[in-house]
Design goal:
This protein is α+β, with helices and mostly antiparallel strands. The protein has four helices and eleven strands; from the N terminus they run H-E-E-E-H-E-E-E-E-E-E-H-H-E-E. It has helices spanning 7-17, 44-55, 132-139, 153-162, and strands at 25-26, 35-36, 40-41, 60-68, 75-79, 82-84, 92-94, 102-113, 116-125, 169-177, 184-188. The strands form three sheets. Strands 2, 4, 5, 8, 9, 10 and 11 form a seven-stranded mixed β-sheet that branches. It has a two-stranded antiparallel sheet with strand order 1-3.
Amino acid sequence: SRNSGTLANFLLDYYQKTGQASAVHPVSRLDRDTFGVVLLAKSSHVHARFHAMQRAGELEKIYRAAVFGVPSAESGVIDAPIARVEGSSLLRRVDPSGKPARSAYRVLETRPVRGTVCSLLELHPLTGRTHQLRLHCLHIGCPILADPQYATDESRAFSDALGLLGQRLCAASLRFVHPITGKNVEILSNQAVGLDFSPAEGV
């Protein structure tokens, strides 16, 4: 079922096995097919504190994405409002009538892959709209590789030719001041996204 095999179910099982009377309160979320760091609180009190920090911009999330093409500038801020696609509860689009959405980016690396130049970007969402980073990469002409919804015909064909499974977007790190201890915390993903594709992925 849709709710089995989820992170929440895994944690609830872990709490039960370890005798912890804790709940699962998601602080940060990941789109389906996105991987990396995710933050959850064990209590509603801590969750409320994190939620307030999130609204104040005190949770710094950094993502990495392998994209098709090269942005026109080495770094910048993508300022493009996002709206729902009519008739869809899931899909979004860049639209002037949408809600404000801003993402900072910088190019970490560019490399030719099978005759096409691809880039590795560091992305910092300055707002938290659904599918924001994926839409903003598409908006600047550099769709995330293997993105199933937000791609161009060319990037989709390229990703298919490489045999890529799952979009190349990783929540690489999360930085914040711990709401209880006051200490600086940085959580790093032990997974990575880059421009090296294994033989199993078509290279």
